[in-house]
């Protein structure tokens, strides 16, 4: 559809944004659905984030996505925030509604949707997460909302795991886990092998594994029970060293592309009131990853 005076504007606010697959996915979706909208990636330096968010309102943009490192910084700039974004402490999707900014978090639902797509139900099952950053917080929150537990958080910097477990326990106690929150506990990296036999799910929420020469945050999957699902949030490459090591131990695996695609599909609900086309997003993301654009 040609861009004209009625084209709706959506942007990604991040720093950097050159690697992002979101423009490829959303613009392919707009084309497929015949929606008169355009999605652009904007590299916004941290000191400029408030001005960029104010610009959404001034330009009467339809909305935005927010990525690293701005997801936490934009939250207090919203007029209204969803309960999930509030509990996650992060906004990844903004809708501009009658000049008001509504902040939501579709990373949480995107992760759960990718688990569901893989046929995995986390309810009542233990989960071990590596990492204690923003992604780990969203994943842990989603797992608690889905009734998983216990959720163990192992991180290179143990103090951050302690802080995250404390924050999640408070959020769960405030009633944001309608499925029945399980316990959340920090875990020293040396203790991973001791809880592994009780995990149904193990997730890499660190940035380790990104890119061609990636490492794995964990290599010994021999203590995890057969059938434990190993998930990596990193999606480039699609099979990371973490997933490769889990596969070698005979475990089923799931890459991070599904979470990316499903958070995008859920962002359409926030912006347009309809879910985005998942199949179109997968195809566009894979084309972009293969390097032939979208
Ligand atoms: N698939 C998706 O849709 C999706 C969505 C969100 C995020 N992600 C991915 O998830 C990853 C994490 O994102 P984030 O926003 O949580 O980042 P973040 O807030 O910067 O957190 C990074 C985490 O990685 C750990 N880490 C970094 N380098 C490490 C190393 N060499 N060894 C061990 N641990 C290391 C950090 O540990 P310390 O605390 O010790 O520094 C921290 O726990 C990124 O790769 C991101 O692209 C994917």
Task: Characterise this structure.
The chain folds into two domains: 8-104 and 263-290, Leucine Dehydrogenase, chain A, domain 1 (Rossmann fold), CATH 3.40.50; 109-255, NAD(P)-binding Rossmann-like Domain (Rossmann fold). The two termini are 15 Å apart. Strand 1, helix 1 (22-33) and strand 2 form a beta-alpha-beta unit. It contains ten helices and twelve strands. It has 294 residues and is an alpha/beta fold. It has a six-stranded mixed β-sheet, with helices on both faces. Strands 9-8-7-10-11-12 form a six-stranded parallel β-sheet, sandwiched between helices. The structure holds NADP nicotinamide-adenine-dinucleotide phosphate (NAP). Residues 68, 107, 131-136, 155-157, 160, 205-208, 210, 217, 233-235, 256, 259-260, 263 line the site of NADP nicotinamide-adenine-dinucleotide phosphate (NAP). NADP nicotinamide-adenine-dinucleotide phosphate binds next to helix 5 and helix 9.
Give structural attributes.
294 residues; alpha/beta; Rossmann fold; six-stranded mixed sheet; six-stranded parallel sheet; 10 helices; 12 strands; binds NADP nicotinamide-adenine-dinucleotide phosphate
Bound molecules: NADP nicotinamide-adenine-dinucleotide phosphate
CATH class of the largest domain: Alpha Beta
Termini separation comes to 15 Å
Report the total helices. Answer: 10
CATH fold type of the largest domain: Rossmann fold
Percentage of residues assigned to helices: 25-40%
Structural class: alpha/beta
Provide the number of structural domains.
Answer: 2
Mean pLDDT: 93
* Biggest sheet descriptor: 6 strands, mixed
* CATH H level, superfamily name of the largest domain: NAD(P)-binding Rossmann-like Domain
Label the overall shape: globular
Order of helices and strands: EHEHEEHEEHEHEHEHEEHEHH
Radius of gyration: 19 Å
């Amino acid at each position: 559809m040609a861009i004209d005076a009625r084209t709706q504007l959506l942007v990604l606010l991040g720093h950097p944004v050159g690697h992002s697959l979101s423009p490829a996915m959303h613009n392919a979706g707009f084309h497929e659905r015949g929606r008169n909208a355009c999605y652009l990636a904007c590299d916004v330096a941290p000191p400029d984030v408030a001005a960029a968010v104010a610009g959404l309102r001034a330009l009467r943009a339809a909305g935005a996505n927010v990525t690293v490192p701005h997801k936490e910084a934009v939250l207090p700039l919203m007029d209204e925030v969803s309960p999930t974004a509030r509990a996650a402490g992060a906004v990844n999707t903004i809708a501009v509604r009658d000049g008001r900014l509504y902040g939501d978090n579709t990373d949480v639902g995107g992760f759960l949707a990718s688990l569901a797509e893989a046929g995995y139900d986390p309810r009542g099952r233990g989960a071990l997460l590596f990492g204690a950053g923003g992604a780990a917080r969203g994943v842990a929150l989603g797992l608690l909302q889905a009734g998983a537990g216990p959720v163990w958080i192992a991180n290179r910097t143990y103090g951050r795991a302690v802080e995250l477990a404390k924050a999640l326990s408070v959020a769960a106690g405030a009633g944001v886990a309608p499925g029945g929150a399980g316990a959340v506990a920090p875990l020293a990296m040396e203790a991973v092998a001791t809880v592994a036999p009780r995990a149904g799910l193990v997730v890499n929420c660190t940035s380790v594994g990104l890119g061609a020469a990636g490492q794995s945050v964990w290599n010994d999957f021999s203590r995890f029970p057969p059938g434990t699902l190993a998930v990596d949030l990193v999606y480039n490459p699609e099979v990371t060293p973490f997933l490769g090591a889990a596969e070698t131990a005979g475990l089923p695996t799931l890459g991070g592309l599904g979470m990316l695609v499903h958070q995008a599909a859920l962002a359409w609900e926030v912006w347009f009131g309809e879910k985005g086309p998942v199949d179109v997003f997968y195809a566009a993301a894979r084309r972009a990853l293969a390097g032939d654009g979208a």
